[in-house]
Design a protein that fits this description.
Blueprint (H helix, E strand, L loop, with lengths): L13 H4 L3 E3 L5 E10 L6 E8 L9 E5 L3 E4 L2 E4 L3 H4 L13 H11 L17
Parallel strand pairs: 1-6
Antiparallel strand pairs: 1-2, 2-3, 3-4, 5-6
């Protein structure tokens, strides 16, 4: 992973990170960072929420991507999948992102254990 443009060490302000573009393995634009989910105790980012551009034909839908699946390339996040592969990903409307059904589908797509560290069916966070 390349070093980010920093403010002292390997750090970045959220207001800058929030503006990062997300590109596929070929460098083609997929959308932009809309939000992140991070662990309050460790500060570690778990997921990056990407808002698709209209060029994907998804009309601003959202995709949750595990942070480990992205590389930082300057002020862009690069995903090691193509646009065609991402068309099969579980895109969602923003208000439907934080549900057990979306979490299960997304975890399966990314090859992660369902439920992750985020929440259980009994404790669904508010969108």
């Amino acid at each position: 992973m390349q070093q980010r443009q920093t403010y002292g060490g390997n750090t970045c302000r959220f207001s800058d990170f929030h503006k990062f573009d997300v590109v596929d393995s070929r460098g083609e634009n997929l959308g932009s960072v809309d939000d992140v989910m991070f662990d309050l105790s460790s500060g570690q980012i778990h997921q990056v929420f990407v808002r698709a551009g209209d060029f994907l034909g998804l009309g601003g839908k959202m995709l949750a991507i595990p942070f480990r699946a992205l590389d930082i390339r300057g002020k862009r996040l690069q995903l090691h999948r193509t646009k065609d592969e991402l068309m099969k990903a579980p895109w969602s409307e923003q208000g439907q992102m934080f549900t057990p059904d979306y979490d299960r589908t997304s975890s399966t797509y990314w090859g992660e254990e369902w439920g992750g560290p985020y929440y259980s069916e009994e404790q669904t966070p508010r969108a």
